[in-house]
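Table 4 source record.
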Amino acid sequence: MDGCGYVFELADGTRLEPQMLGWCGTPPISKEITENPLYNFEFVDGKKVKIAYEEIPEAASICLVGKVVKITCLEEIASVAE
């Protein structure tokens, strides 16, 4: 869908749409933005991560594929070479 970015898919197939915080204008960028776990995260299809999140029941979904969530912790899982 137009405007839909990446979603996280859990091991059980559940999909989560991360709430994206944006900014406009010139620096300084607020602490709320720079301390967000998604601030420096590089979205790549198939990347494996561990996440913690809080559901945001009142948030409107753009993707319409799952729950809208606030990511509270994000850790990339290193690939194991075969």
